[in-house]
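Morning - pyridoxal-5'-phosphate inputs below, output right after.
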Amino acid sequence: MYEFDKLLSLPTPCYVIDENALIKNLEILKQVESETNCHILLAQKAFSAYHVYPLISKYISGTTSSGLYEARLAYEEMGEKQIHCFSPAYKDNDFAELLKICDHIVFNSFSQWKHFREIALKSKNIKFGLRINPEYSEIKTDIYDPCSANSRLGITLENFEENELDGISGLHFHTMCEQGADVLERTLEVVEQKFGKYLYDMEWINFGGGHHITKPDYNVKKLIDCINRIKNKYNVQVYIEPGEAVALNAGYLVTSVLDIVKNNMNIAIVDTSAACHMPDVLEMPYRPYIINSDEADILKYTYRLGAPTCLAGDIIGDYSFDYPLKTGDKLIFTDMSIYSMVKNNTFNGMPLPSIYLFTANGDIKLLKKFDYSDFKRRL
Ligand SMILES: *Cc1c(COP(=O)(O)O)cnc(C)c1O
């Protein structure tokens, strides 16, 4: 880790995107593209900090979106790159707009495909696909599992209308979350077994997101092998659309200690909120890492970190430090680029953290600053 002192001088709360870390991830993704000829798309759901889209566009093929707003953001901010879209259901007005800016549009059902088919097929340059649900996943948390019982996401084999494929050039599946290439390999087996017979007639397949490609122990070679095998067997263009992997470990959230209170244990109130600034801490749930900290009771001083909101459960977690915390101390949460800024809210009047870029040459650049008007405008 380097130059954290610079982060400690920033007004809090703030997110800091780490450009060097982002570039490190992007280089791995670019290598996967070049060794497979697959196209990698940023899933904007995880990370939409468009100030770095020009940088991202130098390394990967484009973006994917879940609807008009994300697609439009990519169109406005990422230049001449591919724009893909998948939505569980499109509204008529949105669909007309999407036809003007997308390269690929994926439908979640045959009824949506039939509803839009006529106007869709007037757009000769757009490729249309269907999201399938292979009913196989290895995700343990239901809220993140697109293959959980009665899932609305994707078409199951039982509901696949093989006589309605005229105009469809590809299939899409998304069934993974923070998983390795071994999970992809097992998933592909099921996808092939159930839908392989249709793949021979397709031009492309999209393996979705959830590939933890830039995590240190990820088996990149296995991913490359999986992509090349499917590409060659079915003669298809392969796409993958990771979100997390693009900006994994590429950002921080800096917060200040506002007060220390006691109730059987030491509790530090900080100027950031799990509910507002890192909701996955409550939803996943997970425990973000803080630089120079450890689990509770490992180092000498343990604190529960809580937000300045009135939600009793707005607790980030219990951490220990080798020094006693005091008002004004700053703490740095890591891996705060993904699923953080995109999920922000101003519940309870919480301010939105500013967004800074820690540039490749070590400068700190302010990208966004928010104030009271951002809170008021939404209500
Ligand atoms: C969320 C999502 C992604 C990205 O998932 P990550 O876990 O961030 O890689 C890709 N495709 C679809 C359809 C998604 O819903």
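Note: The chain has two domains: 2-16+251-336+344-377, 37-247.

O.
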